[in-house]
Amino acid sequence: MRYSVKVGDRTLVIALDENGPQRRVTLDGRELTVDWRPVGAASLAAEAASADTPTRAGHYSVLVGDHSYEAYIRPLPNEDNNGARTFEVSFGPTTFEVTLQDERAQALASLTGGAHGAGDVTIRAPMPGLVGQVLVEEGATVERGQAVIVLEAMKMENDLTTPRAGVVKSVRVSKGQTVNQGEALVAVGDPTGAEQPTSEEDEDDTSV
């Protein structure tokens, strides 16, 4: 899995090949072998999933090559609609705020690109996959953020949503169909008779 990681003003690309506690990591093209294990308590994933202690820090022993570190990682509450998660990471006396987003979340987030109030919008496949469900039909009224397609990709079901309210102008795929990245799936626009955009700049197209 590939991740985009922001630390301060720096953005890094990390590729992670997991095999138990030992991981082969590629950091901006440089390969590293990293071994990390939770120390004395539940894992970060378990802590983050707990409703009682949603921001409790996890304690980890980290071995990078011949160097050993102790790390404390605490998930920070945030309301990022793009699937990014923020953590407070402490190595000894130094603390960093780290924002992490995986490639799947990045691809899905690129569908919306913000709210759209008018003009036709085309929802496109953020990655190759199989259409698992078509949730709307032509002529249906939809609300902003409503799921219109379920795309099966990367061993997961991904709900693809519309970035604007309006009427479904066209459905271009069917259940069971294989689609390529960037392929048009559903178009949503203004109801018939509503005021249309007066220039090409007002029309938006959502794609990857």
Question: What keywords describe this structure?
Answer:
mainly beta, OB fold (Dihydrolipoamide Acetyltransferase, E2P), 4-stranded antiparallel sheet, 2 helices
List the helices and strands and how they pair.
Layout: E1 2-7, E2 10-19, E3 22-27, E4 30-38, H1 44-49, E5 58-64, E6 67-76, E7 85-91, E8 94-102, H2 103-109, E9 121-124, E10 129-134, E11 141-142, E12 147-153, E13 156-161, E14 166-171, E15 178-179, E16 184-189
Antiparallel strand pairs: 1-2, 1-8, 2-3, 3-4, 4-5, 5-6, 6-7, 7-8, 9-16, 10-12, 10-15, 11-14, 12-13, 14-16
Task: Give an overview of the whole structure.
The protein is mainly beta and 208 residues long. It has two domains: 2-104, Lipocalin (Beta Barrel), CATH 2.40.128; 110-202, Beta Barrel (OB fold (Dihydrolipoamide Acetyltransferase, E2P)). 6% of the residues lie in helices and 50% in strands. It contains two helices and 16 strands. It has helices at residues 44-49, 103-109, and strands spanning 2-7, 10-19, 22-27, 30-38, 58-64, 67-76, 85-91, 94-102, 121-124, 129-134, 141-142, 147-153, 156-161, 166-171, 178-179, 184-189. The strands form three sheets. It has an eight-stranded antiparallel β-barrel. A hairpin with a 2-residue loop joins β2 and β3 (22-27). The radius of gyration is 21 Å and the shape is elongated. It starts with a strand and ends in a 19-residue tail after the last strand. Residues 44-54 and 195-204 have low confidence and may be disordered.
